[in-house]
Amino acid sequence: MALEGAARANIGIRIMIVTVVAVPLLFALSGLAIRYAAFASVSSDTGFAAYAQALCRWDCAWYVDISEKGYERFPIPNASNVGRWGFFPLYPLLVAAIRSVLPFPTILIATITSLALSYAACLVAWPLVGKNMRAYVLYCAFLLSGPFSFHFTTFLSEPLFVLLTSCVFLALKRSNYLAAGVASALLSATRLVGVLAVFATVIHMYEEYRAKGGSIVAFPRWLLGRPDLLVAIFISPAGLFAYMLFLYLTVGDGFAFLHIQRAFGRVAGNPLLFLWDGLSYHPNAGWLPTAPQWSAMTAIAGLALCLVLGARRQYGAALFCAVSIILPLTTNLASMVRYVVGLAPLAILVAVLLSASKLTFVAALALFLAACYFMTVAWIGGYLALV
Predict the structure, then answer these.
(1) Range list of H helices, the chain
(2) pLDDT digits over 285-344, tens only?
(3) How far apart (Å, rounded) are the C-alpha atoms in residues 215 and 213?
(4) Does residue 218 lie in a domain region?
(5) For residue 118, what are the domain limits?
(6) d(CA 264, CA 59)
(7) Is residue 361 part of a domain?
(8) How many domains does the chain have?
(9) SS3 label, residue 387
(10) Is residue 320 part of a domain?
(11) N- to C-terminal Cα distance for the chain?
(12) pLDDT tens digits, 310-327
C-alpha cells in the first residue's frame, strides 16, 4: 500500500510538471495565432518575418539598431541630437550574441527570443503565485496571449525585465540572496529601474532578521557582520555601474543615459502635475479616453496595486513597483502603460486576485484572449498610449 501510494504521488507530480510546462506553451501558440490574425487583418504582407517586423514599433527600432550597430560616440546626425544611450544594453547584447550564431534577421531572432524569455518568466512565476493553477493560467495568458502580449513578444526590454524581476523575487522567497544579487545586477543592465530591486533585497533581509527576534537598532550591525549578505547587496547595481563605465570610456559621460532623456522630451517635473495634465486631456469627440488619460489612469492603478501589495505584507515588491512607476513619472507619462504592465509583481497580484473565483477567472481569461486581437491592431496602428 505504501508503494502504491508513493507511485500515485509520483504520477501526480509528473502530471503537475507537465501541466506547468504545457500551459505557457499553449498560450504562446494561441497568442502567436491571435496576434498574427490581427497583423493579417491590417497588412497585405504574409509570413512570420513580415509579422515580426510589423510588431517592431517605437522603441523596438532603437534596440534593433543597438544590437546591429552598438552605441554611437556622438548624437546621431539629423536626429535632433538623439542618441541610443538611454536604452540599456543587456537585451541587445543577448540578441547580438544569438545572431552571431544564427544567420537570421535581428528582429526575427529577437521575436523568438522574447517569446522564449516570456515563456521562462511564466515557469519562474509558478512558485510566486503560490502554485495556484488558476492564477498561473491567468498570468501565462496575460504575458503570452493577453492585451499587452506584444510588449512581451517583440524586441523590447520587457521580456527580459519580467524574467529577471521574477528571478529576483523567487530567490528572495527562498532566501537565496546571492542569486537575488546576481539577478538584480542583470536587471540593472536591462532597465534603469532594475537597480531598485536592491531595496527589495534589503527589506527581505530585514524581515527575516526581525522574524528571528532581532531588534531594529541592531540590524545595521548584524548586517555588517554578514559578508555574504553584503556581497549580495553590493553586486546588485553592478550592471548599471558597468554600463556607466562603458559610457564614460566611450562617450565621456557616465550619465549619458540620463542626459539624453531631454532629447526624447523627458524633463524632470512634478509627477502629480503630469498625472493631472494627463487626466485633464479630454477627447475632442466621443467618449473614449485619450492616450494621456489612459497613461495617467494606468499609473494610478499601478500605484493602487502597490498599496495592495503593501497591505498583503509584500513590502519589498510594493516599494520596488511603486518607485519603478514614480521614477519615470517624474519626467512625463510616456510609456507608462508599458512600464506598469511590465512589473511582474503587479501582474502576478492581478492574476491571484482574479483567480479568487471561477467566475472572475473565466471572465478574465476570456477578456485577455479577446483583447489580444484588438490591442495588437492598435499597437500596429501606432496608438500612442501603448508606446
Answers:
(1) 2-42, 48-55, 59-69, 90-99, 106-128, 133-145, 158-173, 177-188, 197-211, 219-224, 227-235, 238-250, 256-259, 271-279, 291-311, 315-329, 336-341, 344-354, 358-380
(2) 778 889 999 999 999 999 999 999 999 999 999 999 999 999 999 999 999 999 999 999
(3) 7
(4) yes
(5) 14-386
(6) 11
(7) yes
(8) 1
(9) coil
(10) yes
(11) 60
(12) 999 999 999 999 999 999
